[in-house]
Design brief:
By secondary structure, this protein is an alpha/beta fold. 18% of the residues lie in helices and 24% in strands.
């Protein structure tokens, strides 16, 4: 007798992706901790089991840890949390950024809403975003106050875009140098940008706009 297994794959929504929690190794977390300052007020987006948030609270002035999965957060909070660590069970995409935030932390390689978090943090007055959402494997510090250039005006070399896309802009081989591997141009309107508007109706009827990366 032949047994056949049918597999179905459903496309994951933005909410599905944002709800996923995946812990990282110690060196990855350490690369985040190395960027923090004692006067930082941190918004940890997708805090999961609080393993990073607890460590950040030992360095920063205050840490707001946002996690949408109540079961993960409740389990993590069974152990006492330090007084400067505030846990929030909420969808970070719909959350108003708490006042006084200086630094965002977004450790979410699968993130599909980089532009949304970038803009919310910048509009709230934050100066930095520590994240692996764009380069996936590497942790970077994004200057939220920097002036971006339009992709057509960018030169040859690596670029990172507001949509979350990254890449290398080609050019004449004779113009390439080793120094180009050390510089990332912050751009907007890269070739992978496809602006889509997704309406999420929470209790307040808030409208959320995403940029989707065209794979």
């Amino acid at each position: 007798m032949t047994v056949r297994t049918l597999k179905t794959e459903a496309a994951l929504s933005h909410a599905d992706w944002e709800a996923m929690f995946a812990p990282y190794d110690r060196p990855t977390y350490q690369s985040v901790l190395d960027q923090l300052h004692p006067d930082d007020v941190v918004l940890d987006i997708g805090a999961g089991d609080l393993r990073l948030a607890r460590q950040m609270a030992r360095i920063a002035l205050k840490v707001y840890a946002v996690e949408v999965n109540a079961r993960v957060l409740d389990k993590a909070a069974r152990d006492p949390v330090p007084p400067n660590l505030i846990t929030i069970c909420a969808d970070a995409r719909l959350l108003d950024v708490p006042p006084g935030i200086t630094t965002g932390v977004l450790m979410m390689r699968h993130c599909t809403c980089f532009r949304l978090y970038h803009d919310e943090l910048r509009n709230a007055g934050a100066a930095r975003l520590i994240t692996n959402a764009r380069w996936r494997m590497d942790v970077e510090v994004v200057d939220l106050t920097c002036q971006r250039i339009s992709y057509p005006d960018a030169g040859m070399g690596w670029y990172a875009c507001l949509c979350g896309g990254t890449g290398f802009r080609e050019g004449p081989v004779e113009h390439w140098s080793f120094e180009m591997d050390k510089i990332v141009q912050e751009v907007s309107s890269c070739p992978r940008c496809i602006e889509t508007h997704v309406i999420l109706n929470d209790r307040g009827g808030r409208r959320v706009t995403f940029r989707r990366v065209n794979e």
